[in-house]
Every structure is written in structure tokens, then in C-alpha cells.
Amino acid sequence: MTASHMPAAHRIDTHHHIVPPRYLARRRDEIERIAHVHMPKMVEWTPTIAIEAMDRSGIATSITSISSPGCWFGHAADSIEISRECNEYAAQMARDYPGRFGNFAALPLPDVDGSLREIEYACDVLKADGFGLMTNYGAMWPGDAKLAPVFDELNRRKAVVYFHPHAADYCAGVMPELPAPTLEFPFDTTRAVASLLFSGTFSRCPDIRFIFSHAGGALPMLAGRMAAVAGTRKELAASIPHGALYEFRRQYYDIVNATNTVSFNAARELFGVSQLLFGTDFPFWSPQIWVDQLAALNLNAADLRAIERDNALRLLPRFGV
Asked: Does a structural domain hold residue 71?
């Protein structure tokens, strides 16, 4: 099917946030403190508003997730309850709007036991399409050895695992004049990738299909430096038997905030078109922004179709029916 013959609503949005009312009500103060620049749009969100925005921008399906600050607020029991509430809300949305929504389930990380129970429930009961995690939890990044049982279970289940950036606690006041998404989000995505690479999680868990937001943050600029370190330090190379570039190039990356020519060309050169996914970061951005900017790149029809739909279907084939 050529791009000119694609149905009007054909795009699959892999970076689409929901704001369940109970999540917002229970944790409004913490959310406002961490994500204050986005608070008005978080308050306005409803499933109906989401559907209307999708229809205006030709989006057939959106895979929902919880944005920063995620579901961890320092207490395991509370975070377990919040994660379950969010996951059940997302699953109900998918039932209410068949084919329009999938969901990446939240986990109460860094609580390992609670996360293992939630993986089981999300997969076996809610039939989640994957899992949506934060790039860090306090001062813990995903490659931390304490979290290995969680990633081993996700690997056993051949899960899709999507990462959304979250500013690390120690970075919160470094440049207070700049909102966290400006610098801290892309850099923390890069830290998460580095953590998964150098801990050996990527190579140990080859059946996880990872997705990283915003074209991997600063990864296109730093991949060569990481690869050089991985190739010259024996204690690191042992955990990366296939090399850093191999691991980077088999992961997936959404193109939110990377549809300008410089960022897009860097991501395409490093990862390849086959690894790029359409995303919108709704409700914080209008989906039409990324539709228009992708169109302005003048990609050939096959590449545009791959980014907007076909690459996502390799990860989420049920939405191609």
C-alpha cells in the first residue's frame, strides 16, 4: 500500500499519555511540583479530547502510558496501588474504544516484588501491550543490579518496554530557569540507555523490545563515545559481546522533538528508518505538529509509511488487523 493510498487514519502513536482522574487527584501536588510546565494540559485531558486530537491528525491507534513523574512517590504500597489504578484505567479505555487505544502498563519500580506481581497481572489479566517505565527512579537507573529480576521477567515474556524520561532528583535544581524537558529529559534518556548497555542488560535480555523517547535523547551525539569506551575497557566489553552500536541499532526510538532535519538525520543515520516510530507526546503537544514536520522532511513514501505505521506493527501486530 503506497502512502497516497493509506487510509486517512493510519498512524500509530507510541508516545501518548493519559492522566487518569484518580492519579491526578491523589498526586496532584507531586505532579505539579515535578511537571508544572505541563500542568494545564494534564488537567484538561480526557479520553474524548484524545480521540478528537487523534482524528484530526489521522491517528488510528495510540498506545497509552503515564508520563513523568510516573507512579513512584517514595512508598511501595502507595505506588503499587497507583500503578494498578492507572493500568486498570488504561485497560478500560482500550475496551471502551476498540482498536483506538493500546496500553503500556506502569510498574511500581523500584519495588521489585510489587513490579513482578504487576507484570503478571498486566500481562495475564489486562493483556497490556507492553510496559511504560521512567528512565530513573530517584538515583537508580534501569541497569541497576537490584532491578535485574524485573528485566529478566520482561525478557522471559518478550515484552515491549517503553521508556519516558524523568529528571533525576539530583538534577532538579541544577538549572532552575530551564524546565526539565529542555535538557534533563534528553540527557536522562541517554543515561538510561548507557545504564542498560554497560550493565549488560541489553545483551542479557535480547527478547525485550525497547523503545526510547525523543530519538534517544542525546544518544545520536554520544553513541560513538560510548562505543569507544565499550570497545577499549575489558571490564565493560565483557557485558557487551556484540558491541555498543549493535545494541543501539536493534532498539526503537520515537521521533517526538526529533523531526527537525538535524536531529532526524542523526537518528536515521545511527538507528536506521526501520527503528523509528511515530509519537506525539499528547496531551503536551499537538499531534499535528509532528505530522506536519515529518511531511516537511520529504521522505519517500516507504520510509514515511514505516515510521508512521509499519515499524510499530512489528512490535504491536494486533493493531494491523
From this structure: yes
